[in-house]
């Protein structure tokens, strides 16, 4: 670099590794170790650097434990076959796709990676819990109700905003009048007592128990001790669409 250096002072401009014994590469006026030079070059090309050999990966990388590698650096833990980029990781081991599929491990419909823990079964696919999200706000449902439309899942708020009110009971878009109760929307014919199934009308009153309506008649038959723990009887209303 047209200068004289103490050996311990001549270091990589990025990682500060001493270069005297390992050599260096000149990169845009900087002296870099070869791994840092490759990373800088790969960044400019929009490519990955193999975490094993530190060379640029020209083909589709194999992602193992969130790091990129050349696929041919690994072999299937079951059959020993050299792996390709579609290899699958399971419990810290890598398998070729045929061997992995024979093991019956579910694949996430979002990230296409194996699901080793809790599985969400929805929309004809299986998902990691954190990957089954609303198509609008991208928040995980985490066990809450979702609404499907044209192959996509939505939370109740964004489904209602995009496509109209959805009945809390039958899970369908409400075509006619909407019953607004318990911070939910209901079809007129679906809004009924959750205990006796009697249809509730504009003149009826009900109480809320576990987010469901209970008519006054069923409420009065409940034990007094239980009724004292409930909120007062609340009126519902029907809102024209």
From TrEMBL:
One GO biological process term: positive regulation of substrate adhesion-dependent cell spreading
| GO CC annotations, alphabetized | cell-cell junction; cytoplasm; focal adhesion
Q: Which domain of life is it from?
A: Eukaryota
Keywords noted in UniProt: LIM domain, Metal-binding, Zinc
Give a Pfam family name: LIM
Q: Where is the LIM zinc-binding domain?
A: 1-43, 106-165, 166-225
Task: Mention one GO molecular function.
Answer: metal ion binding
Q: What is the protein name stated in its UniProt record?
A: LIM zinc-binding domain-containing protein
Q: Which organism is it from?
A: Crocodylus porosus
């Amino acid at each position: 670099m047209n200068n004289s250096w103490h050996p311990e002072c001549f270091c990589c401009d990025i990682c500060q590794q001493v270069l005297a014994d390992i050599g260096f590469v000149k990169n845009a006026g900087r002296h870099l170790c070869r791994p840092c030079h490759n990373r800088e070059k790969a960044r400019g090309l929009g490519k990955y650097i193999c975490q094993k050999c530190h060379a640029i990966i020209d083909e589709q990388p194999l992602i193992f434990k969130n790091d990129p590698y050349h696929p041919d650096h690994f072999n299937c833990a079951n059959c020993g076959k050299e792996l390709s980029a579609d290899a699958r990781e399971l419990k810290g081991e890598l398998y070729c796709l045929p061997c992995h599929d024979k093991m019956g491990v579910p694949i996430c419909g979002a990230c296409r990676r194996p699901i080793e823990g809790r599985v969400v079964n929805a929309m004809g696919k299986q998902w990691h819990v954190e990957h089954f999200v609303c198509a609008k706000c991208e928040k995980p449902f985490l066990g809450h109700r979702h609404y499907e439309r044209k192959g996509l899942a939505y939370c109740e708020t964004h489904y209602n905003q995009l496509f109209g009110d959805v009945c809390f009971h039958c899970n369908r878009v409400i075509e006619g009048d909407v019953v607004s109760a318990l911070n939910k929307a209901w079809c007129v014919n679906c809004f009924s007592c959750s205990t006796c199934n009697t249809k509730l009308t504009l003149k009826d009153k009900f109480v809320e128990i576990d987010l469901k309506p209970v008519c006054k008649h069923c409420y009065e038959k409940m034990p007094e001790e239980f009724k004292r723990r409930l909120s007062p009887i609340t009126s519902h209303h029907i809102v024209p669409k």
